[in-house]
Automatic annotation (TrEMBL):
This is RsmB/NOP family class I SAM-dependent RNA methyltransferase. It comes from Orrella daihaiensis. Residues 1-42 are annotated as: Disordered. The lineage of its organism: Bacteria, Pseudomonadati, Pseudomonadota, Betaproteobacteria, Burkholderiales. Gene3D superfamilies: Vaccinia Virus protein VP39. One of its GO terms (molecular function) is methyltransferase activity.
Amino acid sequence: MKKYDSEQRSARRAANPPSRSKARGHERARGASTDERGGSRRLDQVTEVLKQVLSWDQPADVLLSKYFRSNPAMGARDRAQVAQAVFDVLRHLRRYRHDAQSIAGGLQAKLAVFGLYASLDDAGRQSILTPEQLTWAAHSQQIDPDSLAFGLRFSVPDWIEQEIKRLPEPESYAESLLHGAPLDLRVNGLKGERQAVLEEIQVQLQDSRFSAQATPYSPDGIRLTGHPPLNRWKLFSDGVIEVQDEGSQLLAHLVGPKRGEMVIDFCAGAGGKTLALGALMRSTGRLYAFDVSAARLGRAKPRFARSGLSNVHPVVIRNERDDRVNRLAGKAHRVLVDAPCTGLGTLRRNPDLKWRQSPEQLQRLCQEQASILTQAAKCVRPGGRLVYATCSFLYQENEAQIEQFLQQHPEFALVNATECLPICPTNAVDGQGMLRLRPDWHGTDGFFAAILQKNI
Ligand SMILES: C[S@@+](CC[C@H](N)C(=O)[O-])C[C@H]1O[C@@H](n2cnc3c(N)ncnc32)[C@H](O)[C@@H]1O
């Protein structure tokens, strides 16, 4: 399976489909087509996309985008209905597969019925589903979730169930993963000030079903309910705002770069954190954006251009032992390793990851993470800092990596994350100072970060 950065994909995705429970409420897809042929067409469309998505060859949002590109006649509402139904199925796949066993017919079509039923309002359901489909979908929805075993109830594979059960309040955590995520924006400090931008957005959203408010922990963040067409906003094209989860914004504060410093974003991907770091540096000093993927760094370039930053130096490296990395040995004040990981902290946005990841893939990733961390550490100057982060909740990718690193690198010591955050979220920092953010407690994606300082 291809490694990828779910956060980048999430940022690209214009519409983040809501969860089943949200869909039951005010975010329901409205105004389903009323003619019968339109109804069965919608069911066919969802079934067709599910056939592709459930092969797990590519991420669901990539396949959806391809499908929409090859069906240009579909309007925005049609696309939203298909995407919402597909994402609902991915969130509840184990449960729906189980409920579908007692019903005749092809699996994908039955899953499509469940997904559409859960994500449409009554009028939409009636216009798309037959009376028989409505009856069995309603029956499935009426089953008391508390009567189901953990894996079925929260629709997670057994190995992920075991991992969630290692966390405090596992049921609350698992429940939060069945919901869609809000759309967080970061205000680019070089081009705007949060309060003024927030007021501008609020005026823009007046009389619409969307709303905006300041994020609780990141001083640069704005949280939107709903998904307005951001890429048509001038604030976006002018580089005043960027899409970035609040948790991700906080990671840049943990790195805490200062004006004029040399900073390395070792796994820069499409540049989400590079942009936040560059803004904190007020576009001074030197900010290297490394990545092994030319395609991802390529996607970062228009974002760098919009941001107005002039201190970013994107560099495609062959691997973490590349000569261009070695040349910076002992030079950097701050190094961020936003490591390639399972991405399981982003299941609200990327529910397919729970079915696309595996214990074998986890093992491969852990080896890669350890190697990247070791090489990145060589770039840190005495007194400088290395920040290791993942968007995963798995102990193996997080605390275990740091414990192993500290055993092998006694010249580094942990710094308490509380000291580096503008406002520290409750229960987010453990006894050793490592940060763990989670959707149910903090409203962010699941993130882990540790700050490591090198002795002088
Ligand atoms: C979690 S993503 C980074 C996301 C990015 N920091 C952001 O905020 O948008 C991990 C990135 O690590 C990159 N990567 C994988 N192996 C690498 C290596 N050996 N050295 C540097 N980057 C690597 C991947 O291409 C991917 O873009």
